[in-house]
Design brief:
Two copies of one chain form a homodimer.
Chain A: H1 3-28, H2 31-35, H3 38-57, H4 66-83, H5 87-92, H6 94-120, H7 132-142, H8 147-157, H9 161-190, H10 196-227, H11 238-255, H12 260-278, H13 281-310, H14 319-346, H15 354-362, H16 368-375, H17 383-412, H18 424-444, H19 449-468, H20 478-497, H21 512-515, H22 520-531, H23 534-547, H24 569-583
Domain Cation/H+ exchanger transmembrane (chains A, B): 17-409
Membrane topology (chains A, B): Multi-pass membrane protein
Domain Sodium/hydrogen exchanger regulatory region (chains A, B): 529-584
Chain lengths: 584, 584
């Protein structure tokens, strides 16, 4: 037995296997995931695993390595989030999202930091040795809302699109702020004296870290799009470039101490439309599928590891500090949302209701990012206290808030996501209004979002598309594409319902066999049509059609763990019955 | 700048990126890959890269780590090979393949080992310090034909299926022999005295290593099939199981010193039919696509690394030894093939022609496996000589034989792969003959391959399918499946040719919109049909159809670097023209 030789890949494979099997296990009992969010179940599995490891080895189970988390587990999730980000609501609410992400996070950091420092001054709690800087450092890591946790919960409760993008967008973009504040306070902790220059440098860094991330991401994204121009003869490695360039953008940003999350999101959003146009349909399915798969596995692993890492002896328990941390996290988040929304609502016609505000505040879940950051802290004598407080805050938000948010959404009757997709009429009207508003803004000299959107679209079609798209000479109107898609769908439906045989096959079809001689099935079709008379063929088709049905795959618009086209088998069964009924 | 933090993933990503870009680069100039095999070009890129690294750092570039090769680069290629292995020709020729793989490899090992030992006795060559055991050890690593190199060359020359499977199957299955002999001689080298018991134990190990690999692989493969029974609600992680279980089978086999290659091939071949039936169509596309992508990247990386590792100072040059190694490799391979084929032809009606024999002997390419094994040798004073000899043999076989085999195949007019797929009639006859022969064998009491195949099929449908397939209660005849596929294809073709609109849409279609209300396009279809009269709709369809064409994707049957359905755009253009002509 030579275990050492294969240990690393073997254990990684086993962990992934455990995560995947756990996921299958939950879904075998349909009732479980509808009550408890998957993230809670996974943490629970992790806790049990941790307990087993602890019991067997009699020492703390291995903690999730922060490097592994930031370098390998986080990027797939963020890439998936960025690639499937609904860009219209995102850019429509970008101002509000940035306000929440930047000002809101700073508000939380300082609020939590200073009030915890106040608690530390109470002598009875025996916490006087925790300095203000350490409290602020702790505040900077505990304040940030976690995209992984938010996604895991919000994708299950189906709130309206605006509310979803506000919480989710904030959780993604606050990374720039968190990175800056966390690194700033950490370096302050190690400095003997802090000059005012350092503080101003810190403020300047916000812009560098955020905008630098966007810049790195966009440049890699456009390079990716440019590369896929040339993959016509090597279709099989096309999907790879999407992953490689996104990952490189993340790593490069991290290397220069910029925000990796912001970089990978800009990369994904920047490349998406060009890559989709360049690569083949199958490559695109693979890209989408693999992104979903990868992020799903990463997310599962993160929650399981969170559970495993909770068990062990690296906690220092101090009731007052831990309780007050939790209370302050909730209070400052609520206050922040209230105050910021007050300003946002003054400048917007479409206001954020108080119900929405409650859900935004309540949806501020903490997760694995805080957890990894707290382990990355430099060693000092109260680190274990911080670890314990972070663990409690994460478990509280994920378990209590995560499990109660769905009943609360039902109770408050928060506006839900519209179930039906917009009709063609609505889509045309939306586009018409966009053009109209861009025109109005242009005439009135107001450089608003429609003006910029129009300019960007012009720049895109004038320059970018020519450089980045392979077949630029054939731009297809989206209405033509839609028609094409409908026609194909219609045809497949006809074939499946067995109604294709009503008209005789067109003679030109007989040439298909010769032209696609490489293709086995078409050749066979050809042979069949050569040897059988049309009547016999029609009869055969009809008889077979009544007993044939392949379930068509259609599904809801956006869900993190499924690709479009994977659900509602009952509807199809119903449809099938109706069709059979009509036929007979 | 914090490079250290991201170094490992960054460099890995960059290497993969280099490999992928190199691949794209070759295919930009269509003439290049048709003359020089891709593997040669990649080694050449590697040589240049190695030269640059050597020039800049003034020391040997990093060598391909044997662990990385065996644990991460080899499995994807073998998995791909196993998963897409044409099982019928493989099992039809299994006897011949095993003979070549086992007896042929042993023949080569001892032939090369003893004759090199003879060369070492010549005083003028100054090689007397290389013992017989070391020569045999060297023979065991240099004798084995390499699957990666063979695949890379043979997929481009399109020889007939039997010839292809003979060389390729041998290269895969000789792994068990190589593992045993290599480990045996290596342990003999470290032993003070060798007893006859050890030699017999070595012979017994052949069966353990080979059959053990098959057993490990099959058990993991069937577990994988069983697992995919339960993935109906977690479609997105379905493809993962195919990869996880195959990889686990490889690692487990390696852990127990069994043949990992044999294990992963049995795993892939064992699970394929059940997994395909259980998982969704999109999952299956992803599995196939990702396997191709992964193996393609691995294979590219291996050849680039081969090139990079060649540059450096770990070579000891000894003209006689290196030249004689090369000569003996060629001679013993040719002799082995001649002798073995003589016996094979005596027992078969369908003999292997002398042209085929020449190609089998000439196609015995050496590759990265030899290279990794030679670096794994225990340190002794002549290791560098062995490295140099191995490098020369690999470069000679890949460059000289790899580049000349295509012209030779043309020159000798070796029977090629049939271009067209078998017709339905042929398929039905083949199946009929199978049943007939199984019956004859059963009556005559001869337990031949048809008898066993029939028994296996019975066992499969009686027990295995019931356990491993999700929807066993609806077994579909393959002729029904074929019809279904034809009907769909026909429908799409009709739609693309714009001939679907000739008949009025059936009233039952109007119900589709209500039933699939989640799906944007169908709803839109519904809306369109509600508001427009059938005549207007038909007119619209016809007008649009003349200007619409989406290229259908069809392609040749098996190619390692492309998935079915990715080629021949010219044919489609032709077809398009014909269709338009007919319409106008």
């Amino acid at each position: 037995l030579d275990y050492q030789h294969v240990q690393v890949p073997f254990e990684i494979t086993l962990w992934i296997m455990l995560a995947s099997l756990a996921k299958i296990g939950f879904h075998l009992y349909n009732k479980l995931p509808s009550v408890v969010p998957e993230s809670c179940l996974l943490i629970f599995v992790g806790l049990i695993m941790g307990g087993i490891i602890y019991g067997l080895n009699d020492r703390s189970p291995p903690v999730m390595d922060s490097d592994i988390f930031f370098l390998y587990l986080l990027p797939p999730i963020v890439l998936d989030a960025g690639y499937f980000m609904p860009s219209r609501p995102f850019f429509e609410n970008i101002g509000t999202i940035l306000l929440y992400a930047v000002v809101g996070t700073i508000w939380n950091v300082f609020g939590i930091g200073f009030s915890l420092y106040g608690i530390c001054q109470v002598k009875a709690f025996r916490l006087q040795d925790v300095s203000l800087l350490h409290n602020l450092l702790f505040g900077s890591l505990i304040a940030a809302v976690d995209p992984v946790a938010v996604l895991a919960v919000f994708e299950e409760i189906h709130v309206n699109e605006k509310l979803h993008i506000l919480v989710f967008g904030e959780s993604l973009l606050n990374d720039a702020v968190t990175v800056v504040l966390y690194k700033l306070f950490r370096s302050f902790c190690e400095m003997p004296t802090i000059k005012s220059v350092d503080v101003f440098a810190g403020i300047g860094k916000f812009f560098v870290v955020g905008l630098g991330g966007v810049l790195v991401g966009l440049s890699f994204g456009l390079t990716a799009a440019f590369t896929t121009r040339f993959t016509k003869d090597t279709r099989v490695i096309e999907p790879l470039f999407v992953f490689l360039y996104s990952y490189l953008s993340y790593l490069t940003a991290e290397m220069f101490h910029l925000s990796g999350i912001v970089a990978i999101i800009s990369c994904a959003m920047g490349m998406k439309r060009y890559v989709e146009a360049n690569i083949s349909l199958k490559s695109h399915t693979t890209v989408k599928y693999f992104m979903k798969m990868w992020s799903s596995v990463s997310d599962t692993l993160i929650f399981i590891f969170l559970g495993v890492s909770t068990i062990g002896e690296n906690h220092e328990w101090n009731w007052p500090y831990i309780c007050f941390t939790l209370i302050f996290c909730l209070i400052w988040r609520a206050l922040g949302v209230l105050v910021l929304t007050f300003f946002v609502n003054r400048f917007h016609v479409n206001t954020i209701t108080s119900k929405d505000q409650f859900i935004i505040a309540y949806g501020g879940l903490r997760g694995a990012i805080c957890f990894s950051l707290v382990f990355l802290l430099p060693d000092f004598h109260r680190k274990k206290l911080f670890i314990a407080a972070t663990t409690v805050v994460i478990l509280f938000t994920v378990f209590v808030q995560g499990m109660t948010i769905r009943p609360l959404v039902d109770l408050l009757a928060v506006k839900r996501k519209r179930e039906s997709a917009p009709t063609v009429g609505e889509q045309i009207h939306i586009r018409f209004l966009d053009h109209l508003l861009a025109g109005i803004e242009d005439i009135s000299g107001h450089w608003g979002q429609y003006y910029w959107k129009d300019k960007l679209e012009y720049f895109n079609s004038k320059y970018l598309q020519k450089i980045l798209l392979r077949e630029y000479d054939q731009p297809k109107s989206s209405i033509v594409l839609l028609y094409e898609k409908l026609e194909r769908k219609h045809a497949i439906e006809l074939a499946e319902a067995g109604q294709l045989g009503h008209g005789p096959p067109h003679p030109s079809l007989l040439h298909f066999g010769f032209l696609c001689s490489n293709d086995r099935t078409v050749t066979a079709d050809q042979k069949l049509e050569d040897t059988l008379s049309p009547e016999v063929l029609n009869n055969m088709k009809e008889i077979l059609a009544r007993n044939l049905y392949r379930i068509r795959r259609t599904g809801p618009a956006y869900n993190r763990h499924t690709l479009p086209g994977e659900s509602e088998p009952t509807e199809h069964a119903q449809e099938l019955l109706i069709l059979r009924h009509k036929n007979l």
